[in-house]
Amino acid sequence: MVNKLALAGIAVIFAAGAWLIAAPFVLRYQPAGAPWTDPARLDVFVGSALAAAGLGGFFTALAGRVRELYAQAGTAQEPGGGPE
Amino acid sequence: MSFVGFPGQAGRYVSGLCVAILGLCAAGWLALAPVAFGYRSAGRAGTSLHSLHRAAWADWATAAVLALVSLVTLACWVVAWRRRLRADGILARASRRQARREARAQRRRQRDGEGAARTPDPVQVLSELRALLTPLLPEPAEPPVPGEPAKLAERAGPDENHRPGAPAVPHPRSGGLPAMEPMLAGAELLMVGCSEEEAW
What pTM does this model have? Predict the structure, then answer.
């Protein structure tokens, strides 16, 4: 449960990054064709960093979880001795 | 394979913690940026004050949600890592108070076990005592023929206990094992009484 919640938290952080990238255009404080404003530049920059970190962290955590499951499956098979 | 030099499963937890901390930092930055860059007070060429307000509110709202989510995520990763460390036996399983209570209970169990090991079984002790004493008992002597006590006394020689300088060693008494039984029964009674007293 805690593991799932932690993974979901990272996914939400990634979503927050994506939202920050999209926010200037969705909320229209960055008009199309106009030079970039400071808030839009800052939001896109922070959003990109968050989205990249969230994506990397999510897949690293997921890979670790999968590796853990493989290790558990390996130790569960060892005592009985698998078919050869 | 390990993640940036962290062995085993640690890389997963470290990456989760890093992302959560980064999220917290970003939330702090987003909360401060509208004030630091003066979104609210100053309008620039090509941007209306209204749109800047919208940007500031968007940043603050995002910062609040991001801070909350990052805190929860951080707590979850800390709990998950601690559980893993406990499962691997690296962290102590219980709190300090619980560990102290368990240690006390274990000491008590050990003491009880030693006490039980030290208290001998009376029946076994008595049977061993019987086995040890039986060889010391003399063979039942034949009844002496009348008129020969003087010869017997000459043959036996002087009493060893009455030799000058000899230590006083009690000799086996005649009567055999049946004569010893009342003594053994008394010893048994004494031992049972002692063990009952200890049990109290």
Answer: 0.56
